[in-house]
């Protein structure tokens, strides 16, 4: 509870982390401070700030939490049963395109393993057991994680056919109307490429999700840079131009080293890795199913 308030810097954020309401968090904080006889947080207009005593307690709490997490990982790594819950962190783009049929096939093969898919958790959650497996495009995984590089991940520009047909055969990206990532996606490859290559482009819409951007593009609002596995999977979109080499990434299936021998984790990563490798042409943009065909006349 102290960790949640310290990390969130507010009762509301801590309540979201713990899955309770903010009055419950307030009651627990007050009770804990009363029991210890010290004040852990300064209540400021901008949020909750740790006191000196709170900082000292927080350090001990983090050490204890890490010890518990490490023990949980090691115990889970000894599990030889093909059953139980398996938490998977991935992206919304993969969950609306490539992964659903793969997860369905895995469920038929291992019905005792209940998969929980999360599309908003960072890959770092593997270290805290918030997730067991990560299926994500990353340039370089963290050293504490092990796994397999499945393929490259190609990107291209996509638009609705009605908008693409109004463009010249070789359009200049800087003159197009774009759908762009918002500030929450500022560190993504798409956002970095747009900042460096299209600083003065007309922006019709900014969004906090590449899936949202793909739907806006499908509605004819403009052009969006998307992973090819998403853009080529949506029938309403066609490619505008070739692959955007500057945005390329790689798809990895990753686990924490302590968990890789767990039966359900091993079974899942082996199955999913094999299925994804069979889709390398889609992931690396070689299918080109959404390329606009133009008449020669």
Automatic annotation (TrEMBL):
Matches recorded under SUPFAM superfamilies: Periplasmic binding protein-like II, Winged helix' DNA-binding domain
Annotated ranges, domain HTH lysR-type: 1-51
Family, as annotated: Belongs to the LysR transcriptional regulatory family.
Lineage: Bacteria, Pseudomonadati, Pseudomonadota, Alphaproteobacteria, Hyphomicrobiales
GO MF assignments: DNA-binding transcription factor activity; sequence-specific DNA binding
One example of a Gene Ontology biological process annotation: DNA-templated transcription
Entries under InterPro entries matching the protein: LysR-type_TF_proteobact-type, LysR_HTH_N, LysR_subst-bd, WH-like_DNA-bd_sf, WH_DNA-bd_sf
Keyword rRNA-binding: no
Cited Gene3D superfamilies: 3.40.190.290, Winged helix-like DNA-binding domain superfamily/Winged helix DNA-binding domain
This protein's name: LysR family transcriptional regulator
Pfam families: HTH_1, LysR_substrate
Cross-referenced PROSITE patterns: HTH_LYSR
Species for this entry: Mesorhizobium neociceri
The entry's keywords: DNA-binding, Transcription, Transcription regulation
Keyword Hydrolase assigned: no
């Amino acid at each position: 509870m102290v960790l949640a308030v310290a990390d969130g810097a507010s009762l509301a954020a801590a309540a979201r982390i713990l899955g309770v309401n903010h009055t419950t968090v307030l009651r627990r904080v007050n009770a804990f401070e009363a029991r210890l006889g010290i004040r852990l947080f300064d209540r400021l207009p901008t949020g909750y700030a740790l006191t000196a005593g709170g900082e000292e307690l927080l350090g001990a709490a983090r050490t204890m939490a890490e010890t518990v997490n490490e023990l949980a990982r090691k115990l889970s790594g000894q599990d030889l049963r093909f059953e139980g819950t398996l938490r998977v962190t991935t992206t919304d783009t993969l969950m609306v395109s490539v992964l659903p049929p793969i997860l369905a096939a895995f469920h038929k093969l291992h019905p005792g393993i209940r998969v929980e898919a999360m599309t908003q958790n960072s890959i770092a959650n593997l270290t805290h057991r918030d997730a067991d497996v990560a299926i994500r495009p990353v340039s370089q995984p963290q050293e504490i994680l092990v796994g397999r590089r499945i393929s490259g991940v190609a990107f291209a520009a996509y638009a609705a056919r009605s908008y693409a047909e109004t463009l010249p055969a070789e359009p200049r990206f800087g003159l197009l109307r774009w759908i762009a990532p918002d500030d929450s996606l500022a560190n993504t490859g798409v956002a970095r490429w747009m900042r460096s290559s299209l600083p003065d482009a007309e922006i019709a819409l900014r969004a906090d999700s590449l899936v949202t951007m793909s739907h806006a593009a499908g509605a004819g609002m403009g052009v969006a840079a998307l992973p090819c596995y998403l853009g080529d999977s949506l029938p309403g979109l066609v490619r505008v131009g070739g692959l955007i080499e500057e945005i390329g990434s790689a798809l990895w299936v990753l686990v924490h080293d302590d968990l890789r021998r767990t039966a359900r984790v091993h079974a899942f990563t082996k199955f999913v890795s094999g299925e994804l490798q069979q889709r390398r042409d889609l992931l690396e943009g070689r299918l080109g199913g959404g390329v606009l065909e133009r008449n020669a006349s």
